[in-house]
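Q: Structure for this?
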Amino acid sequence: MSKKPARDRLAEAAFDLFDERGYEQTTVDDITERAGLGRTTFFRYYRSKEDVIFPDHDRLLEQMAERLSATSSEAGMLAVSDAVRVVMVHYLQEGKVARRRYALTSRVPALRDREIVSTARYQRLFSEFIAAWLTDNAGYGRSDSDRDQVALQAEVIAAAMVAAHNHVLRRWLRGQVQDPLPELDKALGRVIKVFAIPGLTPAGDGSSVGATDDTAVIAFRTSTDLDTLISSLKRIVGS
Amino acid sequence: MSKKPARDRLAEAAFDLFDERGYEQTTVDDITERAGLGRTTFFRYYRSKEDVIFPDHDRLLEQMAERLSATSSEAGMLAVSDAVRVVMVHYLQEGKVARRRYALTSRVPALRDREIVSTARYQRLFSEFIAAWLTDNAGYGRSDSDRDQVALQAEVIAAAMVAAHNHVLRRWLRGQVQDPLPELDKALGRVIKVFAIPGLTPAGDGSSVGATDDTAVIAFRTSTDLDTLISSLKRIVGS
DNA sequence: GCTCATAACGGTACTACGTACCATTATGGT
DNA sequence: ACCATAATGGTACGTAGTACCGTTATGAGC
């Protein structure tokens, strides 16, 4: 009768109790009692009561920070899209747990707030990466004004990407879509397209962008046949 | 010697103490002691210790909800822009207080989180309004698919608008711009323009927004020759 | 099997936020 | 002066989270 690790037993007890009597109505003592462990042990594994629901969030964030910082800068928005996909895939792998958490976060304001804060961290990470990428690849200079434009652009794009992800994710969490990845790709693709990255076709201010750039092509898996794609590509690039 | 209202004295004492010894190092008892009031009184005026820093946030949110819901639907993004401006103007009117709060939120994680949650509420409000507007004015139908597209679009736009606002607001809070309103208008204008609102006219390549295809190809103008591009495309898509 | 270092776990005490409830003191109108 | 009502104060309590130390398991080496 080898017992499960303490960490898991605690999480299990917590989820069960939250379902039974609600989040606020469950104390940490209740959880540890059911898990057959001491109160101290709980706080050793989870920083807070909320933390038991969002366990590997920090890990995921670090993981993505590495992933992005290790990415060669020319990969650009492709890297961001990939990173966003990683988040989605992580939820998919969680499966039922993710949906259980969603049921909780939908009902408990404190948990919803916590989740919002979490996604804001991702957004910030993306924003910083995009800003760096824009600086390197989009022909912006290093003047204060240019830096500000880059920062603004990066923040807006990051916000849009995260919003798109969250929308598709929630659809999956609610069971409105079985395989959300194609939808996600489509949604992210639209965001990227909408921002015309990094075409930024000569703005009125005359800042020519992308003059010195090298190759950057982003393609999403699609059911469209290759010939149609290539002709589209010719139409766009060949201009 | 007519004293100031209790509410104000509490806020004053709180801000002073936060500056002197930091947020976490200041207890509610410290605040009430300096204000010469009872602990109960503090919690009568402010729901929590954090709340003393973000006092009229709920009021502002309600105010904007009214403003938006009272707006005739055809006003569209103009109404959203106005609402965003209202938020900015509110900060400007606060003046030094807003900057003081910014100094605190920059240093104290708990307060930063709280602010993020606050802005998320605005974002949600905008998102709902934009979704309603898109449904009424952008030629979407009432099918499930269309409704989802509207919701996605609305959430992305709302996120972008809020991000733009926050960027300009932070610039002002840091003293990097004296009159942020023109910058704000410019930034919001760009967001609206980028999303091609209204009209949502089909892009040049013929992939209209409402179409049912799942194709997404993004190409950047590049100096690389077409053959290289095509082989890259094959490698990515053809897998 | 024994020893011992180390990791895992438990217990107690403490601080502080936030709530509930009731008592007390202004305040202003008649 | 009286009284209704609002504003304020006090006490007690529950609970999250921290600090600290004591106790028990675990496993490697002999």
